[in-house]
Amino acid sequence: MAWEPSADGLNQIITLLKQSQSTDNAMQRSVQMKLEELNQYPDFNNYLIYVLTQLTTEDGPTRSLSGLILKNNIRIHGTHLQPQIIEYIKQECLRALGDPSPLIRATAGILITTIANKGGLQNWPELLPTLCDMLDSQDYSVCEGAFGALQKICEDSADTLDSNTMSRPLNIMIPKFLQFFRHSSPKIRSNAIACINQFIINRTQALMVHMDTFIENLFHLSSDDDREVRKNVCRGLVMLLEVRIDRLMPHMNNIIEYMLIRTQDSDETALEACEFWLTLAEQTICKEVLTPHLARLAPVLVRGMKYCDIDIIILKGDVEEDEMIPDREEDIKPRFHKSRTHTQKFSGSVAGGAIGVGGGDGSGAARSMDANDEDDEIDDPYDEMDDDTNLSDWNLRKCSAAALDLLANVFKDDFLPILLPILKETLFHQEWVVKESGILALGAIAEGCMNGMVQHLPELIPYLIACLSDKKTLVRSITCWTLSRYTHWVVSQPHDQYLKPLMEELLKRILDANKRVQEAACSAFATLEEEACTELVPYLGYILKTLVFAFGKYQHKNLLILYDAIGTLADSVGHHLNKPEYINLLMPPLIQKWNMLKDEDKDLFPLLECLSSVATALQSGFLPYCEPVYRRCISLIQQTLNQDLASTTSPDQYEAPDKDFMIVALDLLSGLAEGLDGHIESLVVSSNIMQLLFQCMQDSMPEVRQSSFALLGDLTKACFQHVHPHIADFLPILGHNLNPEFISVCNNATWAIGEISTKLREDTKPYVPMVLPQLIEIINNANTPKTLLENTAITIGRLGLVCPLEVAPSLQQFVRQWCSSLRNIRDNEEKDSAFRGMCQMITVNPVGVVPDFIFFCDAAASWMNPKTDLHEMLQKILHGFKVQVGDENWSRFVEQFPPQLSERLAVLYNI
Question: Do the beta carbons of residue 541 and residue 583 sit within 8 Å?
Fold first, then answer.
């Protein structure tokens, strides 16, 4: 018999639903508690679905709310609901898809998707056939309701629909959807495109078969009157550009013309269309197909960068002074800490001009990497540009600027004849919004058109510096950003001409009365610090006075950016910061903030990061502050480990900790160890840091292991006597983490092994078999990134230095890759110890190097200034080889050398 509600139960639930729409917090809390209680009764969910689908006398919002509460119940408790209740809900939902009210239809669609996600689409086999049949209904509401549900299912379950588990329903669904592209209702046309769009990026086979029909239909709808339809057409074309550009090529001219029009629409379609230029800029055919249209596209993109009136209201663009207004907590984005990675600071092109036998390009310094995502992610500069939580994160302005940036990188200086007149017109425009968009455009093209812009910069940079004091806040803030994109050029010019005036004006803007300008100036100044490095030393006092003054002035959000600017300054000027007058300026406000923050406050992250940089730079200058900082870091690690243990053993009682507290604390201890060097010994001896480190090194989270290995390496350098007793526990863990799946973890473990071996000397012998095979595998892997290759080569070299008899027999397995990796590192201590190891190994096993001797010659030639005894070792090996093979063979061998290498060897080693 069908389920029927009781009148009392129904009244109680209706009352609750009405009360839950109240704005009174106390009432909402009480309703929340009653709902929790009612969840104890199985047929509570029957009542909820009954209200949604059958209680037509009630108003729409109350019925819809009933459905949304049910959705949450299914999401949280779905697996515990009785099968007959779920069956009843399923039947009712399908019935409600034809409800006359669009709100009820949409709510039923959301419920259907939730049930399908929770229980698995394959466990509701009749769902898709039923929905597809409903599409053919003569009743518009039924067709539209079914399409709404299908769109949500396609969005949530695209992969499942395209897998074998479901016996390929898309073979029926996609042709079916295509029939509705020409339906009389715009809502249904829009749904049909949106459904199919879900399957473009994965190149779903069922769609590929009908690709021509799909494209033909998209073109047919391109001039549709309905905004949603046009938006979905643009979205589809942008994705096709990414995966099936071959099918679009015959129509490319028309598509570009169409997108040019759509990018100028006055609604969200413009943003969807603007994505087209971003995607096109990344295709190899971009230059060829876009050149004829470039002169019309550039002004459209620059116009798209202009703030509209609503943006200005949202951004409070007319509010000049707001520095006294406290920030709302919800406006502060969560920050993510980047764990420490040990990289070769001296990696890069080698001044010696040795040849690259190994094919390494030797360009660019090694970058720190994230723990798992090793793609050298570069932060999107357009995310930071108008950092405001009220403006949607991605909008036409940012998209237009990013597109102009990418196109400038494609067309380079050929773009300038088109761009310069536009810049001239906008930059000096009377209307401030136009001028502001011109300044943004100038920043956007900085990277791609730098060479051609250089001749205009002597005129433009002073103009921009003057714009830093414009009366409009939004002009001042964008000017900070644009100037930051040209700091590389500014720093390369005579200081008095541009650097000094720029620095003075930026520091004034750091103290601006407007929070947005403060933020933009702080970020731009951090970029300037990275470019200028020690060039800033003469101005340090002035810079620090400003930054410290900002401490008393800034609200919460900008304080976090200020920590960043101070940390970057410390990284950039290093030990030059270690002067009593600078320390007395900088440390009191930092320590005051440090004392105010509670252990569970996430503001500790940026402050700890900042202190880590400051401690490394100040070295012994940090001594007066180190004890409380050290103790708190130990306490943060201990608390996190305790909470982790509690939440693992009793997950119902204890929440899992935020391990970032532990990671940041480990990194600050690394900064202390690196800065204080031997002075950290007294702190280490009176704490349980080694036991904590042992636990952190075995943590399940890669970033925790990454930071603990960095700290182990730094403590090994600073006070090995305290690490030594734990080596038998530590080294097997390091060996176990030589797994390139987590590149930065592997990188730091490798580096730590190298540091330990130089201290353990011959006592490293028992551990060589535990680590050497993995290191050889890593150095021979074609996918190993540059930083990890360099650290692996150095560690193998160091192992060879302390245990040559154990490592030398494997020489043939790694010598070529070893030489290719280390030729790109400039002279430094780590390279020195690694090469000594290589010389030792060659002495033990000269035969091992013979087949790859040219690579060794090239690596030896990469030294600029080796120490005398190392120079003798290298010279001895080169001359020994020459004697061994005889003059005739040697001459034949040298004929293979590029001329540069022969010259270098003659000059350096007299051979």
Answer: no
Q: Of 188-192, 332-336, 345-349, 610-614, give the lowest mean pLDDT range.
A: 345-349
Three-class SS state of 39 = coil
Measured CA to CA, the distance from residue 407 to residue 289 in angstroms comes to: 12
316 Cβ contact list (under 8 Å, min separation 6)? 322
First to last CA, the chain: 100
Three-class SS state of 168: coil
**Amino acid letter for position 318:** D
Phi, psi of 880 (to 5 degrees): -60, -40
Scanning the structure block, which residue is given the tokens 């160091």? 798
Strand partners, 825: 347
782 burial via Cβ count (<10 Å: 0-12, 13-18, 19+): exposed
Instruction: Give the pLDDT of residue 381.
Output: 62
The answer for residues whose C-beta is within 8 angstroms of residue 473's C-beta and 6 or more apart is 317, 319, 320, 512, 514, 516, 517
Query: Rounded to the nearest 10 degrees, what angle do helices 899-909 and 853-860 cross at?
Result: 60
The mean predicted confidence, pLDDT, of the chain is: 87
Secondary structure (3-state) at 498: coil
pLDDT of residue 368: 29
Q: How many alpha carbons fall within 13 Å on the CB side of residue 206?
A: 22
CA distances from 371 to 271, 706, 746, 788 (A): 33, 7, 9, 12
- The pLDDT value recorded for residue 471 is 93
| 313 touches 639 (CB < 8 A) | no
Closest CA to 66 of 43, 79, 77, 50: 50
Give the pLDDT confidence score for residue 38 in this predicted structure.
Answer: 79
SS3 347: strand
pLDDT at 355 over 50: no
Nearby residues of 705 by Cβ (< 8 Å), 6 or more positions away: 696, 697, 698, 699, 737, 742, 745, 749
Residue 493, sorted as left (phi over 0), alpha (psi -120 to 50) or beta, turns out to be beta
Residue type for 370, please?
D
| Cα distances (angstroms) measured from residue 463 to each of 288, 459, 541, 790 | 35, 7, 27, 44
Looking at the chain, the whole-number percentage of residues with pLDDT higher than 90 is 60
Q: Give the CA radius of gyration of the chain.
A: 33
Fill in the DSSP letter of residue 231.
H
Distance CA 482, CA 386 (A): 12
Q: What is the DSSP letter of 494?
A: -
Range in 69-78, 296-305, 721-730 the model is least confident about: 69-78
Q: What is the mean pLDDT of residues 722-741?
A: 94
Question: Residue 549, Cβ neighbours under 10 Å: how many?
Answer: 15
| Cα–Cα distance, 265 to 353 (Å, whole number) | 54
Q: What is the CB-side half-sphere exposure of residue 243 using CA atoms within 13 A?
A: 17
Local confidence band at 339 (pLDDT 50, 70, 90 cut-offs): low
The mean pLDDT value for 99-109 works out to 91
Helix %, strand %, coil % of the chain (to 5): 75, 0, 25
Query: What is the full DSSP assignment across 811-851?
Result: HHHHHHHHHHHHTTBPS-HHHHHHHHHHHHHHHH-GGGGGG
User: How far apart are alpha carbons 560 and 549 in whole angstroms?
Assistant: 15
Residue 897 has pLDDT above 90, yes or no: no
Lowest mean pLDDT among 117-121, 228-232, 378-382, 763-767: 378-382
Q: In 36-68, which positions are buried (b, 16+ CB within 10 angstroms) versus exposed (e)?
A: eebeeeebbbbbbbbbbbebeebeeebbbbbbe
Q: How many CB atoms lie within 10 A of CB 589?
A: 17
The residue count for the chain: 911
CA nearest 521: which of 534, 536, 505? 505
Q: Measured between alpha carbons, how far is 105 from 531 in angstroms, rounded to an integer?
A: 57
Q: Is the pTM of this model over 0.85?
A: no
800's tokens = 């060879």
For 423-461, write each residue's pLDDT tens digit: 999 999 999 999 999 999 999 999 999 999 999 999 999
The token duo for 623 is 């001594």
